[in-house]
Amino acid sequence: MFYILIQAGILYWFSGKDKKLLHWHFDWTGVGFSLTRPIPLKFYRVSLLLPGILLGVMPAIHGFCTGEANIFFLGLFGILGGTGDFLFWYSLRAFDDEDLLLAGKKAFQATIIKRNYGKND
């Protein structure tokens, strides 16, 4: 639940603080919020990785370093919850930061709008 709330807050912030652009989706592949207009990939990548880092990696490291098994396993659970978002982030790494992402109707489905056709690599 916190994972979805953090991700929704990040998407809300990057959408220009417009609640009308957030769309709730719920199906067998995932639950969460998406935007109804395109967002630059550099912002969408942050919204994919930040909840997994805050609720997974950081508590796991803290629990491991302090010897708190409960916090460590809570962090591992957060990492497991963020695996789908990490894999989606990994599949988007081939695109430029300035390209736009338009979320699809289902979770982990999107359309990439290229903005850098004149850019030489």
Outline the structure in words.
It contains 4 helices and 5 strands; from the N terminus they run αβββαααββ. It has 121 residues and is α+β, with helices and mostly antiparallel strands. Strands 3-4-5 form a 3-stranded antiparallel beta sheet. A two-stranded antiparallel ribbon has the order 1-2. Strand 4 and strand 5 form a beta hairpin. The N and C termini lie far apart (40 Å).
N- to C-terminal separation? 40 Å
Largest sheet: 3 strands, antiparallel
Could you estimate the helical fraction of the residues in percent? 40-55%
| Coarse structural class | alpha+beta
Give the count of helical stretches. Answer: 4
Number of strands: 5
Please give the order of strands in the largest beta sheet. 3-4-5
How would you sum up the global shape? globular
| Low-pLDDT windows of residues | none
Strand percentage lies at 15-25%
Give helix and strand order, one letter per element, not per position.
HEEEHHHEE
Q: Mean pLDDT, rounded to whole units?
A: 83
Radius of gyration: 16 Å
